[in-house]
Amino acid sequence: MATSKNLHKVQKQIAKKRGGKSNSLHENSRDSQRLRRAGAREDKIAKIAAAASRANQTYVERVAFFKSALKEATTSMSEDELRALTASYIARDDEELAALKAQRRPGRPSSNQEDQLRHRVEAEQKEFQSGFWIPDTRDDEGLKKLRAWNEDWSSLNTLKYVRIGKEGGMRASTFPPKGLS
Question: Which regions are flagged for Basic and acidic residues bias (predicted)?
Answer without folding.
Answer: 27-40, 115-125
